[in-house]
Design brief:
The complex is a heterodimer. By secondary structure, chain A is mainly α. Chain A has 19 helices and two strands. Classes of the chains: A mainly alpha, B mainly alpha.
C-alpha cells in the first residue's frame, strides 16, 4: 500500500519530467497518455484497497475513506483531462496558437499539478497539507498564464496573489493550532498530525482553536472559491486552457474543500457546534447567492461556468455545515458529481470556443446546427449541472436539501431550492440561446478530435449511470467517509 | 531580541513610505536578515539544531535568492516607480501604526500571558502591514514585497509562539515561498515583455 502511494506520486513527476525533454508531438502524447492511465489505475487500485481494507497509515502518508473519495475525483479527472488535452492542444498547435516549446511546458506543468493534488490527499499532517495546497496554486499558476497575453497575465497575477495571501492566513491558523497542540502535549510530538490532534482535541484551548479555525476557513475558503473570497476564480478559470479549467474547477476546488474538512474534523470536537454551523452555512448561502446575479448577466461562457463552480462549492459546504450523516453523504457525493459534470462542461466549452473563436455567449449561436453532437452533449451537461433528473447531481442536491428538511431547517431548505431555481433559469436561458439560436453568419466547423469526444461522453455516461444507481462500493465508501467527517474512524 | 524587534517594526513602517523599487527590495532584504538572525538567536537559546537549519534556510532563500531575483528584475524596470499608491504614503504609515496597536490588542486578547508578547505582536503587525502593502500598492514588485513581509510576519509568529514548526514542514514552506516568488517574478517579467506596465492597477480587462 505504501508503495502504491509512492508510485501514484512518482509516476506524474516522471511523466512530467520526461515530457519536458521530448520534441516529437506523437511521443509526448503517447507518453502522457500512458503516464496518465497508469496514475489513474494506481489511484483506482488504492481506492479499491481502502474500501476493502480500511485506512492506511505509514509515517507521513495516510489515506482513509475520505481521502479515497477525493482520490476518485482526481483519478477520473486527470485521465479525462489528459485525453481531452490531446485533441485540444493538437488543435492549438495546428492553428499556431502555441509552439512545441509551449506544448512541452504544458505537459510538464500538467503532471506537476496532478502530483501536487495527489499529495494534498495522501499526507497525514496539517502542516504538510498546507505546503501541498500552496504547491497546487504555484503549479497551476503558470498554466493559467499559459498564453501569456494580457488577460491571462492579469488572471494569473490575481490568482497567485489572492490565493497566496489567503493561504498565508491558513498557515497562520495552522500555526495557532500547533500552538494549541504544544500547550497540551509539548514539543517533540507528532506535530500537526491530525490523528494525534483528533485524540487530544477535547484538551485544546477553545479560544485559540476558534481563532485558528477562522483563519483556516478564510485561507482554504479562498482556495475553494467560497464567496466573498472567490474573486480570483472566474478570471483564472476563464483564462486557463480548457482542460486546465476543468481540472481547476473539478479537482482543485474539491481538494481545497478537503483541506477545510480535515481541519473541521479536528476542531469540531471542541468548538461550539452552533458556531461552526452558522459559520459554514452562512458562507455556503453567501456563495450560492452571489453566483446568481453573475450567472444571470454573464457574457462569457467560461466565466458562466466558473460562477457555477462558486455556487456548487457553496452547496457542498452547505451539506458539510448541516453536518448530519445524510447531509455529509450528499455533500461528498456532490463533490464527485460536480467534478465530473463541470469538467465535461469546460471541455465542451473548450471545443466550442476553439470552433467559434470567441468566448462571448452572444456570438455563439446555433450549436445544434453547426455541431449537432457537441450541441447535444452541451445541453445534456447543462441539464446535468443544474440538477435535473436523471443525472447524478440531482441525487446529491436532493440529498442535501432533504437532509436540511430532515434536520428541521425548513426555511434553509426552501431558500436554497429557491436560489437553485434562479440559477437553473439563468443557465438554461443562455444554454438554449447558444444551442438553438440562429447562427447568422456561416461558421466553418472543423473536425472535433475523437479523444476529446470520448472523454466527454465517458463523463456524461458516468453521470447518467450514477444518477440511476449509486454503485454499492461507492455507497459504502461514502457512508464510511461521512462517518470519518462526523469524527469517527 | 528586543533590538531585532524594533528594527523589524522600523523596516515594516519604512516600507509604507518608499517609492523606489530598489529601496523597497533592500529594506525587505534587511528585514529577512533580521528574521534569520532572530531564528538563529532563538535556536542558540533553546539549543535546538533544527532552528539553525531554519535560520540558514531563511538566510539562503530570503536574504539571498529572493532579493537577487527581485533586484535582477528591478534593474530592467528602470522607469517604474510607486508614485501614486492607492493610499498615499502618509495615510499608509498612519494605518500601519494603527495595525501595530491593533496587533498588541489582539495578542493580549487572544493569547493572554504569552511569554513573548512583544515578538508576537510585532509579528502580527508585520503580517497586517504586509497585507496593507499588497492592497494599496500598484507596482507588481511592491506587491511581492508586501507578500514577503506578510510571510516574514507569519514565520515570526510561529517562531515566537512555538519555536517554529517541525523542520520538514518548515522546509516545505520555504520551498513554497521561493517558488511563489519565482512564479511572480516570471509573471512580472512577462508583463514587461508584453509591453504592458507592471502597474497592476492597469490590469482590469477581466470583469463581471
Amino acid at each position: 500500500m505504501g508503495e502504491l502511494l509512492l508510485l501514484a506520486l512518482f509516476i506524474p513527476l516522471v511523466t512530467g519530467l520526461l515530457s519536458m525533454f521530448q520534441d516529437k508531438v506523437v511521443i509526448i502524447k503517447s507518453l502522457n497518455l500512458v503516464g496518465s492511465s497508469m496514475t489513474s489505475s494506481v489511484l483506482a487500485f488504492i481506492v479499491f484497497r481502502i474500501s476493502t481494507q480500511g485506512a492506511f497509515l505509514n509515517g507521513l502518508l495516510y489515506v482513509d475513506s475520505l481521502s479515497a473519495v477525493l482520490l476518485t475525483v482526481v483519478a477520473v479527472l486527470s485521465l479525462t483531462s489528459m485525453v481531452f488535452s490531446m485533441s485540444y492542444m493538437e488543435k492549438e498547435l495546428v492553428e499556431g496558437h502555441i509552439t512545441i516549446k509551449m506544448l512541452k511546458r504544458y505537459y510538464g506543468l500538467f503532471n506537476v499539478f496532478i502530483f501536487t493534488m495527489i499529495s494534498v490527499l495522501v499526507v497525514e499532517n496539517l502542516g504538510l497539507m498546507w505546503v501541498a495546497v500552496e504547491a497546487t496554486t504555484l503549479a497551476s499558476a503558470l498554466l493559467v498564464a499559459f498564453y501569456f497575453n494580457q488577460s491571462a497575465l492579469e488572471a494569473a497575477w490575481k490568482y497567485v496573489m489572492v490565493c497566496t495571501v489567503g493561504i498565508c492566513l491558513a498557515l497562520l491558523g495552522t500555526i495557532l493550532l500547533y500552538y494549541a497542540q504544544v500547550n497540551v502535549v509539548g514539543i517533540n510530538v507528532q506535530a500537526l498530525s491530525w490523528l494525534e490532534l483528533k485524540t487530544i482535541a477535547s484538551k485544546l484551548d477553545p479560544t485559540i482553536t476558534k481563532l485558528a479555525f477562522i483563519f483556516i476557513l478564510i485561507g482554504y475558503g479562498t482556495k475553494a472559491g467560497l464567496a466573498p473570497m472567490h474573486t480570483w476564480l472566474p478570471d483564472a478559470h476563464s483564462q486557463a486552457p480548457s482542460p486546465i479549467s476543468g481540472l481547476l474547477s473539478g479537482a482543485l476546488l474539491s481538494c481545497a474543500i478537503y483541506a477545510i474538512v480535515r481541519n473541521l474534523i479536528v476542531v469540531q470536537a471542541i468548538l461550539n457546534h452552533e458556531f461552526l454551523q452558522y459559520l459554514l452555512i452562512g458562507l455556503a448561502l453567501f456563495s450560492i447567492g452571489i453566483a446568481i446575479p453573475f450567472i444571470l448577466v454573464q457574457h462569457d461562457i467560461k466565466r458562466l461556468l466558473a460562477y457555477s463552480s462558486v455556487e456548487h462549492m457553496g452547496i457542498v459546504l452547505l451539506g458539510i455545515g448541516i453536518s448530519t450523516p445524510l447531509a455529509i453523504y450528499g455533500a461528498l457525493l456532490h463533490v464527485i458529481n460536480h467534478a465530473i459534470a463541470k469538467s465535461a462542461l469546460f471541455y465542451l466549452a473548450g471545443i466550442i470556443t476553439q470552433e467559434y473563436k470567441t468566448k462571448y455567449i452572444m456570438r455563439i449561436r446555433g450549436l445544434i446546427r453547426t455541431m449537432p453532437l457537441v450541441g447535444t452533449l452541451f445541453i445534456i451537461s447543462i441539464l446535468a449541472i443544474t440538477g435535473t433528473p436523471p443525472f447524478s447531481l440531482f441525487i446529491s442536491k436532493f440529498t442535501i436539501i432533504w437532509a436540511s428538511f430532515n434536520d428541521g431547517r425548513f426555511w434553509l431548505g426552501a431558500g436554497v431550492l429557491f436560489l437553485l431555481a434562479g440559477i437553473f433559469a439563468g443557465m438554461m436561458y443562455y444554454c438554449l440561446e447558444m444551442v438553438f439560436g440562429n447562427p447568422g453568419h456561416n461558421i466553418s466547423v472543423g473536425k472535433v478530435g475523437k479523444p476529446a469526444l470520448w472523454s466527454i461522453v465517458f463523463s456524461i455516461g458516468v453521470m447518467i449511470v450514477t444518477g440511476l444507481y449509486v454503485p454499492l462500493w461507492l455507497h459504502t465508501l461514502l457512508i464510511k467517509a461521512a462517518s470519518v467527517v462526523m469524527g469517527g474512524d | 531580541m528586543n533590538f531585532l524587534i524594533i528594527i523589524l517594526l522600523v523596516t515594516s513602517l519604512l516600507l509604507t513610505r518608499v517609492s523606489r523599487l530598489k529601496t523597497a527590495v533592500t529594506i525587505i532584504l534587511i528585514q529577512s536578515f533580521m528574521v534569520a538572525l532572530a531564528c538563529g538567536i532563538d535556536g542558540l537559546e533553546a539549543g535546538a539544531v533544527h532552528m539553525y537549519v531554519a535560520a540558514i534556510l531563511t538566510a539562503v532563500i530570503k536574504v539571498g535568492l529572493i532579493p537577487y531575483a527581485l533586484l535582477n528584475i528591478v534593474e530592467k524596470l528602470q522607469y517604474e516607480r510607486e508614485d501614486h499608491p492607492i493610499l498615499n504614503v502618509n495615510s499608509s504609515s498612519v494605518t500601519a501604526c494603527i495595525a501595530i496597536v491593533l496587533a498588541y490588542g489582539l495578542i493580549d486578547q487572544a493569547l493572554p500571558g504569552a511569554n513573548s508578547r512583544d515578538a508576537l505582536a510585532t509579528a502580527l503587525a508585520m503580517t497586517l502591514i504586509g497585507l496593507l502593502i499588497i492592497m494599496t500598492r500598484r507596482q507588481a514588485i511592491m506587491q511581492i514585497v508586501g507578500l514577503i513581509t506578510m510571510e516574514n510576519g507569519i514565520y515570526l509568529v510561529g517562531l515566537s509562539a512555538t519555536k517554529g514548526l517541525p523542520l520538514i514542514i518548515e522546509m516545505g514552506i520555504f520551498f513554497d515561498v521561493l517558488v511563489a516568488v519565482v512564479v511572480l517574478v516570471i509573471l512580472t517579467h512577462r508583463l514587461k515583455l508584453s509591453g504592458i506596465s507592471t502597474d497592476i492597477s492597469r490590469l482590469k480587462k477581466l470583469k463581471g
